Amino acid sequence: xxxxxxxxxxxxxxxxxDDVDTDQIYHNAHLHITDPEEMGKYAFGNxxxxxxxxxxxxxxxxxVCGRNFGSGSSRQHAVECFKALGVSAVVALSFGxxxxxxxxxxxxWVFRFADDEIxxxxxxxxxxxxQKGVIDVERATFTVGNHVFxxxxxxxxxxxxxxxxxxxxxxxxxxx
Amino acid sequence: MRAGxxxxxxxxxxxxxxxxxxxxxxxxxxxYPDDPVFDPQKVFFTFDLTVPPKTxxxxxxxxxxxxxxxxxxxxxxxxxxxIGSHVLMxxxxxxxxxxxxxxxxxxxxxGAAYCFGQGMGDVDITFAFRFGKVWFEVPKSKRVVVEGSxxxxxxxxxxxxxxxxxxxxxxxxxxxxxxDGSVFKEVGFSGAVTVCSMITExxxxxxxxxxxxxxxxxxxxxxxxxxxxxRPSNAEYEEVIRLDVGELEPHVAMxxxxxxxxxxxxxxxxxxxxVFIGSCTNGRYEDFKEFWSVLKGKRVADxxxxxxxxxxxxxxxxxxxxxxxxDLHDAGVIVLNPGCGGCAxxxxxxxxxxxxxxxxxNRNFPGKQGKGRVILASPRVAAMGAxxxxxxxxxx
Lengths: 176, 396
Fold this sequence. Notes:
The complex is a heterodimer of chains A (176) and B (396).
Chain A: E1 2-9, E2 11-12, E3 15-16, H1 22-25, H2 36-39, H3 53-56, E4 62-65, H4 77-85, E5 89-92, H5 97-106, E6 109-112, H6 117-123, E7 132-136, E8 141-144, E9 147-150, H7 156-164, H8 167-175
Helix pairs in contact in A: 4-5, 5-7, 7-8
Chain B: E1 6-10, E2 13-17, H1 21-31, E3 43-46, H2 56-72, E4 75-77, H3 84-90, E5 99-102, E6 116-119, H4 122-131, E7 133-137, E8 141-150, H5 156-167, E9 176-180, H6 189-197, E10 206-208, H7 213-221, E11 237-248, E12 251-253, E13 261-263, H8 264-267, E14 274-278, H9 279-282, H10 285-295, E15 305-309, H11 313-321, H12 324-330, E16 334-335, E17 356-359, E18 373-376, H13 379-388
Parallel strand pairs in B: 2-3, 2-5, 3-4, 5-6, 8-9, 8-11, 9-10, 14-15, 14-17, 15-16, 17-18
Antiparallel strand pairs in B: 1-7, 12-13
């Protein structure tokens, strides 16, 4: 299975931003919202320099993020806001544990880089936002332009949940 | 069960707050409209974020949960009860050996009672309400041995801030932690709660405290004991980390990250406008006694707005009956009802642009508590800050 889309490096001054927490992804001022479709317009609304992301995002976009992405609170909103914008996958150096499982459960594809090669490539200008990205799920690779980066394997249960669309769809399949 | 494996974990309790809870209800009604919850005795709502509700939206969300609870036969710990994770510990629902999930990213605080607690999003919790289980990737374990002693007026908060200074969010990322070492001899149950509450900020999955005599006494006062098979043993550790902190001095976390930690004396003198004691990290009886011991019979600086918010109704009641809240009131502190407000933005005590809050909470990310900046500290440092209107150079 392949996931393709335009790549966004969530960076500042050429470096991926580490420790982007859920308040920066989806500010708690909007937590009362329960309709996922409404959450898109607040994505990255509290991340300096990225406030206008919702107006620029296109369906299929792939986000590339730094270390510990989505640390902080357990809010599902911080995943749903990207799904609402049509973001197809988030690839990061690492994730906050709760964010990772929220993404898996909502069927937002998430992957961890196997090494730091992407950091170097970004710094050296070999890859940039706007390029086309292709994730090969089975082979665990992420190709940006003509550079190939290794991803960590995702366990089968988690892959199946994301493939099913979300945890509910997966549950219907396996628990019936 | 091996590290790295994804397993289905059977739960002893599934819970939801007024935050996340309404989404759980909506998910449940959509996907399992006619189904019961897996066991009404093991499912709870705990309202603690916006209590009582501050807007119509929050009021409607809480009403939705109450109606669902009535229909499914679920107990609600309503807006008067306080922080859900603490309520679950106090009421006997989060016991040693249990597995508890909820829509609170600090639910791993339950590790303080040797209960496996995890915060999760509303999709997980909906599934947990219905089926009583969740998938879980078994974490690796690390043992963290902290040698040293606590200087006068230094407490568990300083210990965990020191750990954040040392480890940041990297070293313990994604792992389960067992604590040990001489520093923990002086840390009781409430201190274990403080340390375990900030495992989330350290990037870890859960922490289990060292079982000092003082800790076990406190745990026993909660009505719990740790079964033999749960005691720290020779597990397979990915790493054993030894850290010597000497005679530990007070530390604070400056914005914008909880791991941006400095010895207090390096940042003394910074002006503070707000002082807050409370939160799941420092909202227990012992924390308030520390805070009170500094402020009793004195008066907070004229320039300071000081707020005190016990974690739970049970804590509040004890402090009320012992006169602690009266003394704080007399010292000029605003005494607030139990809950998460003041730490989790959403209810009272926002800062304006440029204003500084000295808080016993656990997060100081940008926008965490208004437009201003948040500095994290122990109850004693917070109390000193309230007296002086600035970060003290030392604690007394």
